[in-house]
């Protein structure tokens, strides 16, 4: 009598054989196949295992192997992406970028800053503060749309324009509109961080993830 070898009597649990969440280990597929061959060799000819389960478990081991290969490919792509980011980031050294902050920057005799509005406002006011925190002037910018805006203040009469800051207040009728102050800063160097990716070292703000840069200037 000829017996067709199939697989189910000994009921192999693939997830137990290949170690569940540790299935990415290199020897997991070999262990599974060796156990499967042993079961086939020792099965009861009168009660053969089911072909459907053999097919199902072979599909599982192929899926596990495919996932492991995919993970390796993703890790290699991530490493290449970080290297590419570092090369691109090197071109930013010496350039100005826009980041969160309320420090004013002297440009051609004017102190410049910026802000973003969470919504439209019918009255926007910017107070210019000296290094002691005292208001030295106020700019009335009127109505502004939501989004990013810039402003400039004449600093030509100041003996020393360093250390000046600003604050923004915006309203729509009686309601306050949320605002975020923005400032210019210069990139001194770039580096890579395992969790944040490309990190810029800025002249005044220190280290900033590239994702926190609002604009390149």
Automatic annotation (TrEMBL):
Keywords: Bacterial flagellum biogenesis, Cell projection, Cilium, Flagellum. Transmembrane segments: none annotated. The keyword Aminoacyl-tRNA synthetase does not apply. InterPro entries: FlgD (IPR005648), FlgD/Vpr_Ig-like (IPR025965), FLgD_Tudor (IPR025963). Pfam families: FlgD, FlgD_ig, FLgD_tudor. GO terms for biological process: bacterial-type flagellum organization. Residues 101-171 form the FlgD/Vpr Ig-like domain. Residues 84-206 form the FlgD Tudor-like domain. Required for flagellar hook formation. May act as a scaffolding protein. Belongs to the FlgD family. This is Basal-body rod modification protein FlgD. The lineage of its organism: Bacteria, Pseudomonadati, Pseudomonadota, Betaproteobacteria, Burkholderiales.
